[in-house]
Design goal:
CATH topology of chain A: MetI-like fold
CATH architecture of the largest domain in chain B: 3-Layer(aba) Sandwich
Low-confidence stretches of chain A: 1-10
Mean pLDDT of chain A: 88
Distance between the termini of chain A: 48 Å
Mean pLDDT of chain B: 88
CATH superfamily of the largest domain in chain B: Periplasmic binding protein-like II
Shape of chain A: globular
Number of domains of chain B: 2
CATH topology of the largest domain in chain B: D-Maltodextrin-Binding Protein, domain 2
Low-confidence stretches of chain B: 4-42
Number of strands of chain B: 20
Helix content of chain A: over 70%
Largest sheet of chain A: 2 strands, antiparallel
CATH superfamily of chain A: MetI-like
Structural class of chain B: alpha+beta
Helix content of chain B: 25-40%
Strand content of chain A: under 5%
Order of helices and strands of chain A: HHEEHHHHHHHHHHH
Oligomer: heterodimer
Number of domains of chain A: 1
Largest sheet of chain B: 5 strands, mixed
Distance between the termini of chain B: 76 Å
CATH class of the largest domain in chain B: Alpha Beta
Strand order of the largest sheet of chain B: 2-1-3-16-4
């Protein structure tokens, strides 16, 4: 406590203690993120199976450029991310607004909607696998009981609807998380503003569009950015539900990279080529994020 | 009061999550990973032999026998076993590079992630030849090891790296006898066409309540398309051993048969997207006529999903014309490889001999963990004790194919492509042409790069795949 009062103590002592405090985080960042990222570049031009590395020059790059499966998976990733965000963000916002009000049971429903976030995606995907089952699956049973379908739908085996089935699971799993983030953003909006708008006679919809949304926009921007990067990196539930099938229709970038890096039961791991794909995928996500940030900044200027 | 509690809770959660990160390493015996190499002078002057395994199903039995051995063996050896189930072969490699490798590692044949050639040439494991030459009579008798050498799987040329003590049966078809009767079928068909027809009849009799056949998303080609192909003379790897190149052409009629089954609607709808346990549950519930899988199902349908409501049979895989034209793969199991860096090779060998002793193996097989692979053990084991696994007993035509070179193919692997063709997602001729092209391109490239050698067995006989003259070429 004494040093605090010494002249200049705050700067010099603070510097050391700040460095010390940052050290664990920095250490973990270097060891678990930066080092592995740099490590990848060692093998980007190699055929590497985990033991012996063979230099192959531009072979991996040429292969990547001509790899139809990879580029298909990139398209699927965009499709998945677009659909997921299209549904999850508005729904999360609506829920946040509804449950942000102090009404009976809002705490309970918050907990209910947040629940999927704390369940492992592998577990709930497995359960959805049973729900989607063609034979004796509960979703088909409900729909046919309601008279909406005449024959069971192959939710995960039909190439036309498999992506939608996966997006439903993703929305279910991600909804609560974004709802909580938006709720915490909304709690920072002063109650006085709502009160005065009420006095001015604004109705609920007006309040939402004129007050909540504009005042939430800084948080919304960050949440949306998180949602975009997360959606581009999602692959766990896909691996459990379809493993990329049918016929690679639900293969996304990272599920494909996983298969390349870790091998399947009929092919050895191809770590060298996997690192090439990882770097390209990171670039793609980086570019998407940069474009989003650029656009959101421009929008700020306009607003 | 709330804040300190919250802080404490958060701190605990962080600590737990960090501990979780740490436990990615093998965890069952902390001492194992910390001590690194087994030092000859461990507790009580005992020689510690560290053993890693990725088998969990037999753990209780192995632990019990290990404790017995530790307490009674005259050589003062102590076995320390560690179970590593996730990413086993990567973990072994990492342990080797970080200097914490065990002395022995258990393994089963047929894991695509394990390339014997790489493990041997990188100096991770050592050949067992010098020990095998002086092996005890009991060891030779219990393992028949000279008849259990499979090129590329446990041996490279004259060097022998591990010896299996047991085996898994080749794929069989488990069938529901009640549903067979309802469909007017009296016995299991011998041909693929017969099986396709039987599946259709059962499905027709079921009227939407039960179906002829069930597929799964877990390695579907393996159950049982590959088995049919192998017995019909087309090996599962699509490798033309006599000419040293890949040729998947022989798969055509087999893939067509399975495609027909899908086209007939005889496959349980959606089963191709369901995991293996979900389909086991369906078979046990009586909604599936035929369910293809190997000897592990004996335990599954007696303990995991016990079947009481109907009788089930175990049939041999059908072939194209009902005759056997090639060996069917029966995966060798439960062998131990010795790490090159071990400080206690002699003691490690003694442990290998113990795991192949009659005392150990008899109980092992009678518990139904695996099938005996030597003539002696087949006679010794009391099959009445081992339950339904005896129905999966081995056949003369079962063997192991020499492993073709592991090549770095571009695009999808053979199993994915062929199954995709069977499900009607792509044209069969196009799929086979695509596989031939990509696999041979990869082989040529990897041979030129010096990564693999071309395996040629000029006098290859598909019925006796291990009896030919093995030749490795650099071109």
């Amino acid at each position: 406590m004494k040093t605090r009062h010494k002249k200049g103590g705050i700067e010099s002592g603070g510097g050391v203690s700040a460095a010390l405090m940052m050290f664990p985080a920095l250490f973990l960042l270097v060891v678990t993120s930066i080092y592995p990222f740099l490590w990848m570049f060692r093998y980007i031009c190699s055929d590497y199976n985990g033991f012996v590395s063979y230099f192959t020059g531009p072979q991996n790059f040429i292969r990547m450029m001509n790899d139809q499966l990879f580029w298909q998976s990139v398209v699927h990733t965009f499709e998945y991310a677009f659909l997921k965000i299209l549904f999850v963000m508005p729904l999360a916002l609506v829920l946040a607004v509804l449950l942000g009000q102090k009404i009976l049971g809002s705490g309970f429903f918050r907990a209910v909607y947040f629940m999927p976030t704390i369940i492992s995606s592998a577990v709930y995907s497995l359960i959805f696998g049973f729900i989607y089952a063609v034979f004796n699956g509960s979703l088909n049973a409900i729909l046919s009981a309601m008279g909406l379908i005449s024959a069971p739908v192959d939710w995960l085996g039909n190439p036309d609807i498999v992506m939608l089935s996966i997006v439903i699971v993703a929305v279910w799993g991600g909804l609560g998380n974004y709802m909580i983030l938006l709720l915490s953003g909304m709690s920072s909006i002063s109650a006085d503003i709502y009160e005065s708008s009420k006095l001015d006679g604004a109705n609920g919809i007006q309040t939402f569009f004129r007050i909540t949304l504009p005042m939430l926009s800084p948080i919304l921007k960050v949440v949306l950015m998180l949602a975009i990067t997360t959606a581009f990196k999602d692959y766990q539930s896909i691996m459990v539900l379809t493993n990329g099938g049918p016929n690679n229709r639900s293969q996304v970038m990272f599920s494909y990279i996983y298969q390349v890096v870790f091998g399947t039961n009929a092919v050895i791991p191809q770590i060298g080529y996997g690192t090439m794909l990882s770097v390209v995928s990171a670039l793609i996500i980086g570019v998407v994020t940069a474009i989003y940030l650029f656009i959101s900044r421009k929008l700020d200027d306009v607003v | 009061m709330k804040k300190p509690v919250l802080c404490a809770l958060t701190a605990t959660m962080m600590a737990v999550s960090l501990a979780g990160c740490g436990s990615a390493a093998p965890s069952s015996s902390a001492a194992t990973t910390e001590t690194g190499h087994a030092m000859p002078s461990a507790a009580g002057g005992k020689t510690v032999v560290e053993v890693w395994t990725n088998d969990r199903h037999d753990l209780d039995y192995v632990n019990k026998k290990t404790e017995e051995y530790n307490a009674t063996n005259p050589d003062n050896i102590e076995i320390k076993q560690t179970v590593v189930t996730d990413d086993y072969f990567n973990m072994l490699t990492m342990a080797k590079t970080s200097g914490t490798a065990p002395d022995l590692a258990a393994l089963n044949g047929g894991a695509a992630q394990f390339d014997l050639k790489v493990f041997a040439e990188s100096g991770i494991i050592r050949p067992l030849n010098e020990y095998l030459e002086n092996a005890s009579e009991e060891y030779v008798r219990n393992t028949d090891y000279k008849d259990r050498l499979f090129e590329g799987m446990n041996a490279l040329g004259d060097d022998i790296y591990w010896v299996p003590t047991g085996q898994r049966s080749g794929t069989r078809v488990l069938y529901n006898k009640t549903l067979f009767q309802e469909a007017g079928l009296t016995e299991f068909p011998k041909t693929l066409d017969g099986m396709v027809e039987a599946a259709k009849k059962i499905t027709d009799a079921g009227g939407g309540k039960f179906y002829g056949y069930a597929a799964t998303s877990s390695s579907p080609a393996e159950r049982c398309m590959e088995g049919v192909a192998e017995k019909s003379g087309q090996n599962q790897y699509g490798y033309d051993y006599a000419n040293g190149k890949f040729d998947f052409s022989g798969y055509k009629p087999i893939v067509e048969g399975f495609k027909q089954m899908f086209a007939d609607g005889s496959v349980l709808p959606g089963s191709q997207n369901q995991q293996v346990d979900a389909m086991r549950a369906q078979f046990a519930a009586g909604t599936v006529g035929m369910w293809p899988n190997a000897s592990q199902e004996a335990g599954v349908f007696t303990t995991q999903f016990p079947i009481d409501s109907f009788e089930w049979g175990v049939a041999e895989i059908p072939t194209l014309d009902g005759m056997v034209h090639g060996a069917q793969t029966a995966v060798p199991q439960k062998g131990y490889m010795m790490f090159a860096d071990t400080d206690v090779p002699d003691a490690a060998w003694k442990v290998i001999e113990y795991f192949a002793s009659e005392d150990f193996l008899k109980g092992y097989f009678e518990s139904g963990f695996s099938l005996p692979s030597s003539k002696h053990m087949q006679q010794v084991v009391d099959s009445t004790k081992s339950g339904r696994i005896q129905d999966f007993g081995t056949y003369d035509y079962e063997s192991v194919y020499p492993l073709p070179p592991s090549v770095t193919i571009e695009g999808e692997d053979r199993r994915t492509v062929l199954w995709s063709a069977a499900m009607g997602e792509r044209d069969i001729d196009e799929a086979i042409a695509d596989l031939n092209k990509r696999y041979n391109e990869a082989l040529d490239r990897d041979v030129a790069m010096g990564k693999v050698k071309r395996l040629v067995i000029k006098d290859f006989d598909p019925l006796h795949p291990n009896e030919g003259t093995v030749e490795y070429r650099n071109q």
